Amino acid sequence: MTLSGRIRTGYRRAWLLGPLVACSAPAPAPEATVNDTPPPATAPIAVGGDTRPVVLFVGTSLTAGLGLDPEQAYPALIQERVDSAGLGYRVVNAGVSGETSAGALRRIGWLLGQGAPAVVVVETGANDGLRGQSIDSLRANLEAILDTIDTLEPRPVVFVAAMEALPNLGAEYGRGFRAVYPDVAERRNALLLPFLLDGVAGVDSLNQPDGIHPNPAGARRVAENVWRALAPSLRPDRIDR
Question: Span 152-178, mean pLDDT?
Fold first, then answer.
């Protein structure tokens, strides 16, 4: 099955489940979606006595690890790889379930105010796509997030994680949505992280029953995807901190 086919299979399930979850769930908060669950506690960037440079993951339920134990979420698996490679970094999972790019924009200043990270991975837009929100708004929010990161001195290494939109929203929307990520990354001197769910989306054995959130095996595959792109930037000669 092609990548677009896998995305269509998994996202179709989430699309169909949405109204059922919305009918049975309490009234949502402003940034709630079909994934309206309390986010896991976010580890602070600044920890007394821990001087390791920080790799900060800002993201949605895909990063938070919805439905998984904290140690099964892909950022925790990245920490394991960092430790195994003898690299002196601390990974902070700042994922929040249900967050749109607008929510990430409102939160990024506070996150960076807790301590300057060495690396920032921005995973946002999945919930914008689930809602069929404006592509122009997604682009503007993502650029504003990078603007905020750019105020740090020294500037962190920045990754933008590519995402895909629901095929149900049409080919034109999908093309426009997909183009946001490489366009913004190139224009803003950020590194592009290929589609987070590559090899996972639409694969039943790698997803939870909702068909969209990775299970533990799927999270391991996501960690592999992220690590391939991230690891070269964690070499000591790439970051002077």
Answer: 95
